[in-house]
């Protein structure tokens, strides 16, 4: 099955947004063994869209379109496909009810062009949109299937994964036997990792090993081909073991698991509750931790002690420590964590204080960071970092180091019963 | 001048990297008034690349190619273009010296395929690559110009800006005076906005008005063409005034300014300090507010009162309120904000409580959100929302509503001196 992706939207041709949809779809199709031979982007222009559709039909079995399903007059995708394959647009009652309910629930007036979103190509298979109003469609014409998906990634991605992918896998009679496993590393650079594994990377062909650096993390993608799933897993396990022998201390998780998610999972597994005291990071650490459903079973709460006097008044850090060592200090980080643990009655606590920049603070350079941890050992713990990068990079890296530090310490920790 | 961008590389069709090159080039061409009508991506495949080149030549004046200029056998771009326009490849001495020197300087052996990178299309204009080894080219054929640029953004971007852009501006006889102004709206849907402005959108040609919805916000891009900058601004101001007359209450800022940045700017301008009490949002609001350098002049700190007992113990919400109304209530939101204002000694405070989902809480549906505000009026203020979407969407939208709500209230607020 040869596929082609057509992205519709003048905002793409004006460079106002990056086309991450084409990347996402290509990636997923590659995994199930469908070849993508072209990605095309056209604007909200009926003539050029129709020309692109005609061409795609002539050379591809599967044409996936994103965008142009919105309520406004410049949304032309379903109209153009319907014209090309000679079918009318008809109201899809289920989608219409969904849209009407959406407005009713919110007590908002529904405009006529919202109704337009419930129009679908006659005889097409409708793909439900659980995150927006435009339904997707599968419309067949002779040997070619046109798949119409909404443009906003928040709507397109779940529709692709939950509605379309099972359909496609069924169409091609099961997944071809290529599997990837991603190993995630932190605290080691890409070139160091590559140097440590060079002979493996160069000699291994099944699975192949591909390193990739991104946002201070490095991943290794192991890709294996084999018709037998058990054999696939055996080959992946074997290679993973070789890698772990050399750089296992830096490995923290698999596939798409972020450091924060891994921490969340580990806190859950250990039934360990946590509290936070954030200055440098201003609540971003707890904001990320609470993005996971079920966070309330491990996260007690936190104090964002941004102003210095708030560290004393709300958190209870002693004036003496601040006067003697300043707020950008290991002593302050340790007291912040200890106070958070006590005030919020948690098993452990983590604190962040430091200089995000751009200016210095207490004569310390931007990137100076102290992370304190309470509750994981009898002795108070902290780490000091000197991080590179701008304000947001420093804050984000501090958070990642905090997660990694906690993960390593948690391994040895067990809840007192 | 009508342009088309062809991105070459199988890694794009496999979804291994995002095509930021096409976005970058489109953006820059839009600024100088060159229309991009198509973006096409093809793999490292001679037949399909040639087909794409043929088609581009037939419909575009300017064909910009990125990628496929590397040293390996699957790099085919210049070979394919040379074939199409019937020119041989010849060594470019300057590039050859540059490459030889590169290896000499680093004491590395130079391989034969590195020499291949110095081959250029005969009679083409060579674009120097100061960040890599593959030179770019401008090759003309009849009415069409082919521009060949390297694929790595680190090489492509400086070559585009420093070598190609001056050439293109010269070609089109100076920059056409096109300017955009983006108006940002919140609290109104795209279709409602369009309905309210339909006659303007349809009748206005200079500036044009283009709506775009993204993450719960809507923007209107006004694009004006005029040789005189003052006249440009006059035309933009005139259209903006017409728009503001109708939907001004939803407009909060310009261009790339986020709601949170606008709030930060307004707090600064009013010298108003703020504190937070976050349950639903878990610190994400303060995490975003502290992303701006200078946040300490307006942000005092916050309490992330995630567990119910923390709302009482650390924040000081009364047990009675929680027992009688629950934590998902306007009463709790109001007390959270009032307590944060008092505990953290700020001018104003904002609180977030609600159900992020996926499950219900206190028998309330996911998306039920209460935002409390203290300090902006004698009476306590709150708003109740029923937000759609998954867990993170609910949290993000709650934060945006909170910003928008504060922004509107702050307009009427002045610091007591």
TrEMBL record, chains A, B:
Domain annotation MoaB/Mog: ranges: 4-171
Protein name according to UniProt: Putative competence-damage inducible protein
Domain of life of the source: Bacteria
Coiled coil segments of this chain: none
Family annotation (HAMAP family): CinA_B (MF_00226_B)
Family (UniProt): Belongs to the CinA family.
Source organism of the structure: Halalkalibacter akibai (strain ATCC 43226 / DSM 21942 / CIP 109018 / JCM 9157 / 1139) (Bacillus akibai)
Listed Pfam families: CinA, CinA_KH, MoCF_biosynth
């Amino acid at each position: 099955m040869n596929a082609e992706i057509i992205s519709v939207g003048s905002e793409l041709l004006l460079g106002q947004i990056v086309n991450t949809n084409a990347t996402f779809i290509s990636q997923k199709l590659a995994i199930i063994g469908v070849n993508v031979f072209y990605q095309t982007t056209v604007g909200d222009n009926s003539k050029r869209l129709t020309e692109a559709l005609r061409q795609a039909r002539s050379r591809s079995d599967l044409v996936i379109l994103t965008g142009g399903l919105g309520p406004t007059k410049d949304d032309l995708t379903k109209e153009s496909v319907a014209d090309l394959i000679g079918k009318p647009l008809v109201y899809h009652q289920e989608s219409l009810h969904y849209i009407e309910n959406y407005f009713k629930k919110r007590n908002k007036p529904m405009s006529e062009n919202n109704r337009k979103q419930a129009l679908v190509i006659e005889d097409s298979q409708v793909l439900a949109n659980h995150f927006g109003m435009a339904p997707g469609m599968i419309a067949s014409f002779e040997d070619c299937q046109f798949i119409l998906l909404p443009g906003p990634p928040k709507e397109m991605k779940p529709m692709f994964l939950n509605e379309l992918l099972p359909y496609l896998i069924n169409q091609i009679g099961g997944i071809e036997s290529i599997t990837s496993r991603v190993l995630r590393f932190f605290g080691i650079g890409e070139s160091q990792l590559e140097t440590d594994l060079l002979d493996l990377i160069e000699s291994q062909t099944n699975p192949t090993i591909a390193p990739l650096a991104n946002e201070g993390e490095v991943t290794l993608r192991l890709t294996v081909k084999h018709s037998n799933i058990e054999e696939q897993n055996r080959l992946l396990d074997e290679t993973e073991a070789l890698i772990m022998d050399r750089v296992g201390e830096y490995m923290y998780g698999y596939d798409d698991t972020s450091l924060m998610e891994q921490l969340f999972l580990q806190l859950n597994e250990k039934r360990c509750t946590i509290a936070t005291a954030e200055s440098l990071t201003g609540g971003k650490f707890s904001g990320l931790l609470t993005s996971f459903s079920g966070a309330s079973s491990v996260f007690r709460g936190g104090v964002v002690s941004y102003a210095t006097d708030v560290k004393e008044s709300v958190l209870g850090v002693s004036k003496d420590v601040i006067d003697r060592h300043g707020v950008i200090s290991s002593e302050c980080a340790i007291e912040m964590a200890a106070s958070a643990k006590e005030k919020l009655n948690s098993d452990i606590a983590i604190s962040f204080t430091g200089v995000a920049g751009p200016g210095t603070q207490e004569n310390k350079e931007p990137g100076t960071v102290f992370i304190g941890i309470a509750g994981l050992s009898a002795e108070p713990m902290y780490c000091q970092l000197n991080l590179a990068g701008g304000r947001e990079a420093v804050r984000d890296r501090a958070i990642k180091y905090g997660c990694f530090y906690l993960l390593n310490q948690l391994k040895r920790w067990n809840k007192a019963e």
